Amino acid sequence: MSTFDKLLTTIENSIRHENTKIRESIPPYIRLAVTLRYMATGDAFARLHFDFRIGIKTIANIVREVTHHICSELSTVYMRMPTQEEWLNIAQRYEINANFPHCLGALDGKHIRIIKPEESGSMFLNYKHFFSIVLMAIVDSNYNYIFIDVGSYGKECDLNVFKETQFWKKLVDNTLNIPSPCSIINTNYILPYVFVADEAFALHANVLRPYGGNELTKEQKIFNYRLTRARRYVECAFGIMANKWRILHRSLNLSLDLTVAIVKTTCVLQNFIHTEEGHVEPLINRDRLNSRLHLEGNNLTADEIRQKYTEYFSSDEGSLPWQDKYT
């Protein structure tokens, strides 16, 4: 079964309409095709009107309805909050792919370009001098979205947007099922599981950011390099999404609620496509997991945790042969 057919099967009953005595309804596969064509090409509704012989207002209603059902029915399967075992799977993949142990995801924000909404003043005007809403996302090393928040004002900085999300509140309340601190395999370093972010975010016990300034030690430069290697996955995920769904290459001249729905749909579909087209997550190595699950870490401050990672990346156990070239 093709990816399109699998998606159609999932939402077909939700987007099917009854025929009337006056005319037959537009079939579900046409409704889905119109929506995907709109998001994949960025064509205006007027262009799709000529391609599909469907009214412009009808196309707008179809896009709104289909994106709503894609988000509601796929997000519970393809973008749900991970269990503790799934967090450990994500961390193992980061350790293999990015050489960054105990990493649960890469965090960053993306500005989605929009046409200035009426009577909005400068609320949506960002520091890059265009109008936008913010997509805040956490991504794993398979370029899949773990968590997204869409719709914040473009003028807000990434830190403020992140601290208003449900994810941050659960992180602070310790209700994310994040595994307890434990030792890095074959070492005596006992460290917590963390998310990696850029300098726009604040340092936290579970959020690492790079060292700032120009007067950095060699060890701090190595830490920044290793963190960047892990953080690049969120940047790549944004690029993959924007080039697959080229509607994100232009300013969206839509209502805010439909703009948010389209952005959420592109994120959910990225996870869906990666899962259905062969981006299979590797199974965790049970022997490695069981050997360190029982260990507990100390109550370290955020600065102390970052320093521990800095020491590990410059140690014999944690260093990479080529990392000195980038310092």
Automatic annotation (TrEMBL):
Which Gene Ontology CC terms are recorded? nucleus
**Location in or out of the cell:** Nucleus
Name the Pfam families on file. Answer: DDE_Tnp_4
Keyword tags: Hydrolase, Metal-binding, Nuclease, Nucleus
Q: What is its main location?
A: nucleus
| Residues of the DDE Tnp4 domain | 107-271
Q: Which cofactor does it need?
A: a divalent metal cation
Q: Where are the transmembrane segments?
A: none
MF term (GO), any: nuclease activity
**Similarity section:** Belongs to the HARBI1 family.
Protein name in UniProt:
DDE Tnp4 domain-containing protein
| Biological source species | Euphydryas editha
